[in-house]
Design a protein that fits this description.
heterotrimer, A alpha/beta (263), B mainly alpha (230), C mainly alpha (237), A: 263 residues, alpha/beta, 6-stranded mixed β-sheet, 4-stranded antiparallel β-sheet, 10 helices, 40% helix, globular, B: 230 residues, mainly alpha
């Protein structure tokens, strides 16, 4: 079902020949990528393969060194300067970021606000929606991820799993078109990983567009409509889970999953 | 130790307390405002301003407060332009010289505290805000500055106490705050230990109250830090 | 005018260069002595505050609370005038009439030392608390006697952790020597005052003395940074 929608869907994210250099180290070496509406794309790769950097380029938390980026049908306008490209139109980036929400590895809830305030912050002050509507939506999302009981608590009082689920709720209240997940379970104790993956599975089942950088192989295989394997800054393998995990993909990918299968 | 004398001395020293608190309070307020400006200059886009701000901070942190006080009190009168100016009746007063010196001094230390507090804001929380489309003044007002305030407050409370203690140095330019009165009493009665105990007790009391006040303020802002579990 | 400034600061007959140089020596010497005394008191104070006995901890706490909460200049007055009063009484009793005062240098260093000791107590205490318990326990398990444990394991690591705080305290002590001008010690600030009064050039001399303090502070700061790096070598990657 998800695949049918994806096949007809519009392209929500596209990169052309994306490069990213940190000093003398080139982390992304020309990525051509597309994601369509309704797809769930898992981005896999070893440490240092550039997968987090790639994801962070998509909402411009990292500035690409070269290449073009299209979000939701618009090209992100960049200006080339002495130190490399920079944002030409900050308002465009701010606006696009409200449609492309990100969930971070370290949750990054704002420590001086309660959980509920965290969820309401951006919709109120960036999207300028009405307080009543935002409050209803926030409470609904908290219910959805199962953190309602902790709405009035501060992030430091929540477990890691609760914080991450709250962070996902925070992203959802923005009503984004795309959800980006940057290793959402890597900072969690093993017994808390399951509750977060369950929320993500439910989101995928509803047909949301999701890009997920993860180490959770089983999750990636079961939930994704497409898998992208990054190796040394390039896309080394790409395809449906069945195609990649069924054997016959690139040798590097075989080596990569072999290490995880042994564990 | 003649406790009656200690108490009697204490009562004689009390009139110095309002002056000490005034000096500290006014200097801290002016110093805080100056510190915000100085810090803005120190990280600003205009290179010469950055250089001046950093040199100013280094200068006032790297030289003794007493030297700064004497420089302003004895030195300003040397400049003809200042003597002739409309500010002179104010600037020749020890009180205002003390305020200027204390304010400039604390502004340099406070500028550093501001820098440290802003640097201590977790990068992840700033990124999460940017990723939601926040930027510019909104980002600073809603996320960066509130968190930086909570980081910087404990350190600023230490600075406030240091300023309170520093008011004692103004006794060297004739101001009759607590230490000024104590010095006079010592010179006339030579009962040094009792006077020291009385003066010390007054300063400790002032410091205690100030610490308490800051502690209450910190606690109000820090409800979010109480660790707990689900 | 520039020529005048050079003449005033130089070493010629009209120049104040030599007195200023001597005064710098007094400043630095007083600072070193005061800081060293503070170091000894700091170690003792930390030991008190870390002790198992409540009474000892209380003494330590009183020491740090009192001498960090009271203006340093009051402590200077206490030692100088108090010491003189005591000495005068003693001498008078011994049959020597009149007023006796103690040397400003000694009394000043004592005052600075006792105040610095309170701050150094906190620095050493915090440094010690950062030591991993395992390091001490391993040494004990190897059969190392307590004194050797202290010398080889505890002291070096505590020092390494306390060094940044000690560096800040040193800079404070250096600046605090200027307080000794009020009890007549001819260190930099007092010398500046004498020169300023004599030549009616307060801006010049207080300004120069400020710069001298700045220079001494920066130089010693660099030296301390070197020491910090050297002590941190085992942990650097």
């Amino acid at each position: 079902m998800t695949n049918d929608r994806a096949a007809q869907g519009k392209t929500v994210i596209a990169t052309e020949d994306l490069h990213k250099r940190f000093g003398s180290v080139e982390v992304l070496r020309g990525i051509d990528f597309q994601a369509r509406d309704g797809e769930v794309v898992s981005i896999l790769g070893a440490s240092g393969s550039g997968k987090s950097t790639f994801l962070r380029c998509l909402n411009l938390l990292e500035m690409p060194s070269a290449g073009r980026l299209h979000l939701l049908g618009e090209e992100v306008r960049l200006r080339t300067g002495g130190d490399g490209p920079s944002v030409a139109d900050r308002k465009q980036v701010d606006r696009l970021r409200t449609e492309v929400a990100m969930v971070f590895q370290n949750f990054c809830l704002w420590s001086h606000m309660t959980v509920l305030e965290n969820l309401m912050e951006a919709p109120l002050h960036v999207q300028r929606r009405s307080r009543a509507e935002v409050r209803d939506e926030a409470e609904a999302m908290l219910e959805r991820v199962g953190v309602t009981a902790r709405a009035a608590a501060y992030p430091a009082q929540l477990s890691g799993g609760q914080q991450q689920r709250a962070a996902i709720a925070r992203a959802l209240v923005m009503k984004p078109q795309v959800l980006l997940f940057d290793e959402p379970t890597s900072a969690l104790d093993p017994e808390l990983v399951g509750e977060v993956l369950k929320v993500m599975r439910d989101l995928a089942a509803e047909g949301r567009t999701m890009l997920i950088v993860t180490h959770e192989m089983a999750f990636a295989r079961d939930v994704s409509s497409r898998i992208v394997f990054l190796d040394q800054g390039r896309i080394a393998a790409e395809g449906t889970p069945k195609a990649l995990f069924g054997g016959g993909a690139s040798e590097r990918f075989e080596q990569f999953i072999a290490r995880f299968n042994q564990g | 130790m003649d406790w009656a004398f200690v108490i009697d001395t204490g009562l004689q020293l009390l009139p110095g307390v309002p002056l000490a608190l005034q000096l500290a309070g006014l200097s801290l307020c002016v110093g805080l405002a100056l510190a915000v400006l100085t810090h803005a200059a120190a990280i600003g886009a205009i290179a010469p301003l950055r250089w001046i701000a950093r040199a100013y901070i280094d200068l006032f942190r790297g030289t003794p407060l007493l030297v700064q006080i004497f420089f302003i009190y004895y030195g300003l009168g040397q400049i003809p332009a200042i003597r002739a100016s409309v500010l002179w009746p104010v600037l020749r007063e020890p009180y205002w010289c003390a305020i200027v010196a204390l304010a400039l001094n604390t502004s340099a230390y406070t500028a550093e505290i501001i820098r440290g507090a802003l640097a201590a804001v977790p990068r992840g929380e700033i990124e999460a805000a940017r990723a939601c489309g926040m930027s510019g003044l909104l980002l600073r007002r809603r996320i960066i500055w509130p968190i930086a305030l909570r980081q910087g407050l404990p350190i600023y409370s230490s600075e406030a106490i240091l300023v309170l203690k520093a008011t004692a140095l103004t006794s060297t330019i004739t101001l009759t705050e607590v230490t000024g009165i104590a010095h006079k009493l010592i010179a006339s009665s030579y009962r040094v230990l009792e006077i020291f105990v009385a003066a010390g007790a007054i300063y400790l009391a002032m410091t205690f109250v100030l610490t308490l006040a800051f502690g209450l303020f910190e606690r109000r802002l820090s409800a979010h830090l109480i660790q707990g579990r689900a | 005018m520039m020529l005048d400034i050079f003449k005033l600061l130089g070493f010629g007959p009209e120049g104040w260069g030599q007195p200023l140089l001597l005064a710098s020596g007094v400043t630095v010497t007083a600072a070193i002595c005061g800081f060293a005394l503070g170091g000894i008191l700091g170690v003792c104070g930390a030991a008190l505050k870390l002790s198992r006995h409540g009474a000892l901890r209380l003494i330590g706490q009183l020491y740090t609370t009192v001498f960090r909460g009271i203006p340093e200049i009051l402590v200077v007055y206490l030692f100088y005038f108090g010491g003189s009063v005591v000495l005068t009484k003693v001498m008078n009793l011994g049959g020597f009439p009149g007023f006796f005062s103690l040397p400003s240098f000694v009394m000043g260093v004592l005052a600075i030392g006792i105040v610095s000791g309170a701050y150094q107590t906190e620095a050493f205490r915090a440094g010690f608390l950062r030591l991993e318990r395992g390091q001490i326990e391993t040494a004990a398990a190897c059969g190392m006697p307590p004194l050797l444990r202290l010398r080889r394991i505890i002291a070096p690591q505590t020092l390494r952790f306390a060094l940044p705080a000690l560096g800040n305290i040193w800079q404070s002590v250096l600046k605090e020597t200027s307080l000794l001008s009020v009890i007549g010690l001819t260190e930099l600030l007092r010398q500046a005052g004498i020169a300023a009064g004599s030549t009616r050039q307060p801006l010049l001399f207080y300004g120069v003395v400020a710069l001298i303090f700045l220079a001494i502070g920066k130089l010693t700061g660099l030296g301390l940074a070197q020491a910090e790096r050297h002590l941190a070598k085992p942990w650097s990657r």
